[in-house]
């Protein structure tokens, strides 16, 4: 009999995690709480109608089903301490506890951590009242970045091109709590994700996300409109610098601060003329970076996460498909401000191509149909012999899917493709 695993969450990241875990010969069953129609359709995967933040319900369900590992996908249950409750019940959990998850749950906590452990990042000031923030913003060079302190699902950051825009963002975010105002970093952004286990650091392949809604990196910030891996900006030399200057100091810093950490640590990196600088930390896999990363991962994900949750020695490296992978996010009408739900999705394939996979992110089952139920609805992800081929495959499949008001970017991977040319 194989192992039973519980994955918390309902997005595209969690669909990809469940799909990959179910491929392990060591796994008999993957449960998703609550999952989505995509996870429900996967072989060896079963959805449970339990919220990812319902700690007591999750403990009961895990013991009733003989679960041997819990993998926490999104940030909300991490910050809410769901992992802490599951561990107290004696369940092996992959994902940091609430104290360490403040690295993502609080921008102020993260900036103070970076400063304390001398990890390169943008200069900043914290504000809890509007007057001081407005005075500081008026004197600041442009662009200037304004961030909400707490979780904001990718919508708590404004890169302001005018002082008026920055002050409006400060006023909006201060209604939720403290804010951070920081310098704008010039360079190319990349995602560097690693498995951290009590000071050990095992990097994943590099990737790059596209935060802006529109082609050419225009429009409002979103949770991510597409991603690809590998990212040429994170070549071997730059990857080693990020390990040396960011990830290993962060792992040491967590130990020094008395914060045990067994989970993914995601560093949003700006590669500047001075080297890599941290834009943000997330305490889980990125979404949509997870989708191309897990399409490329050849190592057994279950064996890796089980060992990490137990505090075992990590392998020195992971095995990756050398082919690039690219994910195009299909978003609902009105995203990101007011996404419309309930639109029937047409053109979903009956079977997967081995090199093209559609991950459900914001969908629901309704009257026998799959409908939109979130801002980012699907992630169409493809492998290719080149990044251009991966993009062509992903866009060909995306073009066959439709619903009223569906929107997506047409230039995912443009930086890497331009480098190639």
From TrEMBL:
Its cofactor is Mg(2+); Mn(2+). PROSITE patterns: ATP_GRASP, GARS. Keywords: ATP-binding, Ligase, Manganese, Metal-binding, Nucleotide-binding, Purine biosynthesis. SUPFAM superfamilies: Glutathione synthetase ATP-binding domain-like, PreATP-grasp domain, Rudiment single hybrid motif. One of its GO terms (molecular function) is metal ion binding. Its EC number is 6.3.4.13. The keyword ATP-binding applies. Residues 111-310 form the ATP-grasp domain. It holds the Pfam family GARS_N. GO terms for biological process: 'de novo' IMP biosynthetic process; purine nucleobase biosynthetic process. It catalyses: 5-phospho-beta-D-ribosylamine + glycine + ATP = N(1)-(5-phospho-beta-D-ribosyl)glycinamide + ADP + phosphate + H(+). The keyword Cell inner membrane does not apply. Pathway: Purine metabolism; IMP biosynthesis via de novo pathway; N(1)-(5-phospho-D-ribosyl)glycinamide from 5-phospho-alpha-D-ribose 1-diphosphate: step 2/2. Belongs to the GARS family. PANTHER family: PHOSPHORIBOSYLAMINE--GLYCINE LIGASE, PHOSPHORIBOSYLAMINE--GLYCINE LIGASE, CHLOROPLASTIC. This is Phosphoribosylamine--glycine ligase. It comes from Acidithiobacillus sulfuriphilus. The lineage of its organism: Bacteria, Pseudomonadati, Pseudomonadota, Acidithiobacillia, Acidithiobacillales. The gene is purD.
């Amino acid at each position: 009999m194989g192992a039973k695993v519980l994955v918390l969450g309902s997005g595209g990241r969690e669909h990809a995690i469940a799909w990959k875990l179910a491929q392990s010969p060591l796994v008999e069953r993957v449960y998703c709480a609550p999952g989505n129609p995509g996870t429900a359709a996967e072989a060896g995967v079963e959805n449970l109608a339990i919220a990812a933040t319902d700690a007591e319900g999750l403990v009961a369900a895990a013991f009733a089903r003989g679960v041997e590992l819990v993998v926490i996908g999104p940030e909300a249950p991490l910050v809410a301490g769901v992992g802490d409750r599951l561990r107290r019940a004696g369940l092996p959990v992959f994902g940091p506890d609430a104290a360490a998850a403040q690295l993502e749950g609080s921008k102020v906590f993260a900036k103070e951590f970076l400063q304390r452990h001398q990890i390169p990042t943008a200069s900043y000031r914290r504000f809890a009242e509007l007057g001081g923030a407005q005075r500081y913003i008026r004197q600041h060079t442009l662009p200037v970045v304004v961030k909400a302190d707490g979780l904001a699902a990718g919508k708590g950051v404004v890169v302001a091109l005018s002082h008026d825009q920055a002050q409006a963002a400060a006023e909006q975010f201060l209604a939720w709590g403290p804010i951070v105002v920081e310098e704008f970093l010039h360079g190319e952004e990349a995602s560097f994700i690693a498995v951290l286990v009590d000071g050990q650091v095992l990097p994943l392949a590099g990737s790059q996300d596209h935060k802006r809604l529109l082609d050419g990196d225009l429009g409002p910030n979103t949770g991510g409109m597409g991603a690809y891996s590998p990212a040429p900006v994170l070549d071997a030399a730059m990857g080693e610098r990020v390990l040396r200057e960011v990830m290993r100091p962060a792992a040491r810093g967590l130990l020094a601060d008395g914060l045990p950490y067994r989970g993914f640590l995601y560093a949003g990196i700006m590669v500047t003329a001075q080297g890599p600088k941290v834009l943000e930390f997330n305490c889980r896999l990125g979404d949509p970076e997870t989708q191309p990363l897990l399409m490329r991962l050849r190592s057994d994900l279950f064996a890796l996460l089980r060992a990490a949750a137990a505090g075992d020695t990590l392998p020195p490296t992971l095995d990756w498909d050398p082919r690039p992978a690219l994910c195009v996010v299909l978003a609902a009408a009105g995203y990101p401000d007011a996404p419309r739900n309930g639109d029937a999705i047409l053109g979903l394939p009956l079977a997967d191509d081995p090199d093209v996979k559609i991950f459900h992110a914001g969908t629901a089952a309704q009257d026998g149909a799959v409908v939109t139920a979130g801002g980012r609805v699907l992630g169409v992800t493809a492998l290719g012999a080149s990044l251009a081929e991966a993009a062509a495959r992903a866009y060909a499949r995306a073009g066959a899917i439709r619903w009223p008001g569906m929107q997506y970017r047409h230039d995912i991977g443009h930086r890497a493709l331009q480098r190639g040319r």
